[in-house]
Design a protein that fits this description.
By secondary structure, the protein is mainly alpha-helical. It contains ten helices and no strands.
């Protein structure tokens, strides 16, 4: 097949996956993930079931694929402590929050009580990986405290996003990113003092 043919196939795949993802977002917001079926998705996307199964095993595989795109955005925030790195991390967090706001109905359902617990746990684990990379070395020496802080901070992050969604965005994405960073810095400073006193 010619190069142009390959490009056409790639564009067709991308278009189909986009239709499937849009159907997932819309239908989850409307009826909840638990009640969602592959038939619902294919009908909404205007494709047949065979086409869906060429791309995904089932609705959970589709959801995991979507979660991976969120993870890639989290990974976009480089774990640096210098001033340039701080700006890049802030920009990365703003990008994630803007994505969540653009798909607010989906996230309100998926991260809430009618969502899929597996999706929330996957996002939590992604956040935990990022937190571990950003923690100062003095806090990483105490393994028990490290695990406690990571669990606390990741759950708090999800809780803050849910609060933001439930209250119809009292802060912009940039403002919320700054507020969360302030809370994180305050928590890290208090934790560092605590570790210093106990050592």
């Amino acid at each position: 097949m010619s190069r142009d043919g390959n490009q056409t196939d790639d564009l067709r795949v991308q278009r189909t996956q986009k239709l499937i993802l849009e159907a997932l977002l819309e239908l989850t917001a409307r009826k909840g993930f638990a009640a969602l079926t592959v038939s619902d998705i294919t009908q909404n996307a205007g494709i047949n079931r065979a086409t869906f199964y060429r791309h995904y095993q089932d609705k959970f595989d589709l959801l995991n694929s979507y979660a991976q795109t969120v993870y890639e955005m989290l990974e976009d925030s480089p774990p640096k402590s210098n001033e340039a790195g701080e700006r890049q991390m802030h920009a990365g967090l703003v990008k994630i929050l803007e994505h969540i706001r653009a798909n607010s109905k989906f996230y309100k359902v998926m991260l809430g009580k009618h969502g899929d617990p597996g999706f929330t746990e996957t996002i939590r684990q992604y956040i935990q990986k990022r937190i571990r990379r950003l923690l100062p070395e003095d806090l990483q020496r105490d393994q028990a405290f490290l695990e406690l802080y990571v669990a606390y901070s990741s759950s708090a992050s999800i809780g803050a996003v849910l609060w933001w969604l439930d209250h119809e965005f009292p802060y912009s994405a940039k403002e919320l990113a700054s507020r969360l960073r302030q809370l994180e810095i305050g928590s890290l400073k208090a934790s560092s003092r605590s570790v210093g006193k106990s050592s």
